[in-house]
Amino acid sequence: MNPLLDKLHSYPFEKLRLLFEQVTPNPQYKAISLGMGEPKHPTPAFIKQALIDNLDGLAVYPTTLGTPEMRAAIAGWLERRYDIPKLNPATQVLPVNGSREALFALAQAVIDKDANSLVISPNPFYQIYEGAAYLAGAEPYFVNSDPARNFGCDYDSIPEEVWKRVALLFVCSPGNPTGAVLSLTDWENLFALSERYGFIIASDECYSEIYFGDEPPLGAMEAAHKLGLTSIGEPYKRLVVFSSLSKRSNVPGLRSGFVAGDADVLKKFLLYRTYHGGAMSTSVQAASIAAWNDETHVEQNREMYCAKFNAITPLLQEVLDVELPDASFYLWADVTRTGLSDTEFAQRLYAEYNVTVLPGSYLAREAHGINPGANRIRMALVAETAEGLEAAQRIVKFCKSL
Fold it and tell me: Where is the Aminotransferase class I/classII large domain positioned along the sequence (predicted)?
């Protein structure tokens, strides 16, 4: 067996299962889960219909590169959404079976396993970043999020001897679980570091369409364009961006996303994926094209999230230290004032009120002397508003009973 598999940590939901293993939840309450970030809003009917209308695609082998129509739809969406020059659909866009598998696969394609490389990850983080680093033969280097910096990472704190070993840097903006969005200054700093040390930036932007202010979150490509970096001979050099329809269009089971950016990186990544087996069914591509070409359902989806967060967040603020995030569908709450640790809070809430939340320490690693997820919980407000309000009311009761 591959010895690198022994470096992998249990997934957060496996840890949660073990935490709850000996607990019997209060039968007076119906189970409500805020633990998993799985969209629960209805899938738009027109996306379902586009899939049904193209089931003949199941009878053919798809190409790894995807159809020209699919790549054009993605390039068109990026141009409209971020007001950037249109990408070359033939060389700068690649459809993938959800951003999760592509984030993992990119590390395998770009890291030299014999180079003693490091992969920088935010902390807390999406656990795929860590696993991708280990199985590519690299080591993760965690940069803690700082509440005083709107949960941003202090990249200036990383010593030069670390930067010299970095092959890949994962960015998640809007962040999971914090909801933080990188600023233009943040991006300018990262682009300068990438230019100086030669590492690739992988920007995970799958929560980009769920936000609460008037301005949509800044994307990496948009930042590069605003900073004048797209006018040079090799636009988006060492930058690859990942996005997905799962959250934007409520189709997590469609497993449809894309990678876009540096044409040289994507050329090698396409070669890797040809062997890896990452081709997307043309039936799925047809449904995806319909989704990428429509914004009305995205606006309606965002309105539902805004109404939900605006109703639930003030309730929880009565008993927890929690703020409306920049974006994403998570609340990242500090439970310190309850006198319970994050794991104790989650276990007792489940036992007494049958509400599931995810302990923040399960989403982070101890780095530089602290676990930045400790004493926090992540709540995924993915269900309908009524269920979310019921969960919030139970949490308030629980906290007031302590």
Answer: 31-381
Question: Structural domains in the chain?
Answer: 3-42+297-401 (3.90.1150.10), 54-294 (3.40.640.10)
Rounded CA-CA distance 52/48 in Å is 6
To the nearest 10 degrees (0 to 180), the angle between helices 342-353 and 385-401 is: 110
Residue with tokens 């948009």: 222
Pull the structure tokens for residue 56.
Answer: 């003949």
Q: Which long-range contacts (CB under 8 A, 24 or more apart) does 298-301 make?
A: 298/209, 298/248, 298/249, 301/41, 301/209, 301/210, 301/248, 301/249, 301/250
Nearest to 378 by CA among 130, 10, 11, 12: 12
Residue 224 CA to residue 201 CA, distance in Å, equals 12
pLDDT at position 111, please? 97
Residue 392 CA to residue 331 CA, distance in Å, equals: 11
Amino acid (one-letter) located at 247: K
Residue 191 · residue 227 · CB < 8 Å: yes
The model's pLDDT over 92-101, given as tens digits with 9 standing for 90+, comes to 999 999 999 9
Q: Residue 278 corresponds to which amino acid? A: G
Mean pLDDT by 10 residues, the chain (402 residues): 96 96 96 95 98 97 97 98 96 96 97 96 97 98 95 94 98 97 97 97 98 95 93 84 98 98 97 94 98 98 97 98 97 98 98 98 97 98 95 98 95
Q: For residues 161 and 264, what is the distance between their CA atoms, to the nearest angstrom?
A: 27
CA 361 to each of CA 216, 252, 375, 376: distance values in angstroms, whole numbers, following the listed order: 29, 25, 7, 7
Rounded Cα gap, residues 378 and 398, in angstroms = 16
Backbone angles phi, psi at 163, to 5 degrees: -55, -35
pLDDT at 232: 66
| Assigned token pair, 346 | 């989650």
Report which DSSP code applies to 175. Answer: -
Give the list of residues 6+ apart from residue 80 with CB closer than 8 angstroms, or none: none
Q: Where are the beta strands (DSSP E) in 106-210?
A: 118-123, 139-146, 152-153, 166-172, 200-204
pTM of the model: 0.96
By the 8 A CB rule, do 142 and 129 touch?
no
